[in-house]
Amino acid sequence: MCSFRCGVVLPVCSIVLSALVSLSLVVAGDHVEPTLQLPTVMVAVLVRNKEHTLPYFFSYLEELDYPKDRVSLWIRSDHNEDRSVEITKAWLKRTTALYHSVDFKYRNEPQRRASEKTNTHWNEERFTDVIRLKQEALQTARNMWADFIFFLDADVFLTHRETLRHLVGLNLPVVAPMLVSDALYSNFWCGMSPDYYYQRTDDYKKILNYDQVGQWAVPMVHSAVLVHLNVAQTRQLTFEKKNLPAGRYDGPVDDIIIFAMSANYSGLPMYVSNTLLHGYIMVPLEAGETVPGKDVEQLTNVLSYIVIEYGEVKLKEDLRRFVPSVPKDKLSLSNIYMINLNRREERRTKMLKHFDLLGLDVEHFPAVDGKQLDDKKVHDLGIRFLPGYADPFHKRPMTMGEIGCFLSHYYIWERMVRLNQQEVLVLEDDIRFEPFFRRRAYGVLSDARRIGGWDLIYFGRKRLQEEEEKWIDGSEYLVKAGYSYWTLGYVITLEGAKKLLRENPLQKLLPVDEYIPIMFGNHPNESWAGHFHGRTLNAWSAAPLLLYPTHYTGDEGYISDTEDSARIDGTLPAVGSGKGGSSTVVNNDTRDAAPGEPKKGDKEQLPNAPVLLAESGIGQNEHDLEAKNRRNEL
Fold this sequence. Notes:
There is one protein chain. By secondary structure, the chain is an alpha/beta fold. The chain is built from 15 helices and 27 strands. The strands form 7 sheets. It has a 9-stranded mixed sheet, sandwiched between helices. A 7-stranded mixed sheet has the order 20-19-21-25-23-26-24, with helices on both faces. It has a 3-stranded mixed sheet with strand order 9-18-11.
């Protein structure tokens, strides 16, 4: 038996299609203008134990920009142990009249099949039921003369409103919108082995990472699949093994594999489209994993991605009552501060949504705004600048934004001492949380407290040195921090704050992400470091990191309130200037680097460290995840 691999998309014009649109006539006086209607689509959904995803699933399904009177809904549900049926009924009560037709059936049999060990256990009986229901949906769509059938899993979130319209417009026989997860998992394969399972290929990551964009012929699509029923060869598509050509298939009883092979035997190419960011998908649960545990965490990860991309999560008002509020805490810390400029309300709003999702009790700490600083205000604050300091990239003095950034962190350190706060997490407002943030943060803090002796732990940073960083003895999550930029997020102890304050850094100021590495004795500029004598800060870093920037230099939407601000001029005294002293004269350019120059916010260089969080899904590659033969349906 041969193996199957990704191929180049065929031109749409090479596929002969019929009955794409229906035609109606609009009479304008004596002139008759034809009006084309979009093709009809039947959406087929199987639901089981999806109480946590259904409010979002239905909200995004309803948001699709496709005429609802051209859409029929076919929904089946059984063996539920939650409120899946109640949520479906609630949504349909309001929306049924909007759609061409709705066919919803459910069964109230015992919560679990007698042959199932858990609700994530897949046995032959369960596979057989899913195959029967999908075949029934396919035949129903054919019988109602639908132009398309759209198989859609109940934990898929189609966040792009144009997705269905876009897929229909491609005029392909079988096509799936490429979906993003919180790992390397997606809803397509680029390779299939001779025994019909996932096969790793180089093309998979290229498509998944949008390195190549378009429509791509692949051997497998699932979870969100549009089938063009007016293509004659789709009559041969099936989910049932008995309908395949006799003697050709000797593989497993598996709905998505049988469907893929029926397309292959019929000569029908299947495609995945990544021309849009279509939406998101959940990674399947393994046997023994639970919905209240792992799956809810994964939902949080996906919703966090949606907030980063769109600024909010769509949720219809009548479905909000089915979404429980997440209790908040401080991750066992004394406090969590978010530094945010009052004028950056959009960032603050987005971060608050993240905190709601993650259950973080965070205090907004108003940042010192560099735009409200000038030479006189800086002088009045008693600030003096480090002699000889110039930005390593641009050979310029500090900007007012960098001064404001330093003061913001400095004032938090002062507050810690004043309030006797033992451990504090400091966050900036342009960050994204890595998947399973809470669990991983607790793991880092647990190790750090057990080992002891630390003053500061980076949760997010830009690593600058090439050498491999040494692991902290006894920890799987911590390394000794090397020279690093960025203060995206870090945990600092009361003793660490005291060490940073003890050096009187406002009397020899430089950017905060230069000062901290100097204080833990890992800075390449010995001349700068020589001005600071108590360099005993013990700084570690989470590995892998728990936070990253939302945008990098050059990305659309990238804004830097530190880099893109006025610079100090030569009238401000440096250390040692004054009567009888000399002042350091610097350029007074008012803006940052010229277009095209690099900034300090370039791409993160990841540590050369193993990822040791397999239990949370982090570090599992696409082979590991696909090999699970994910199951999302009943």
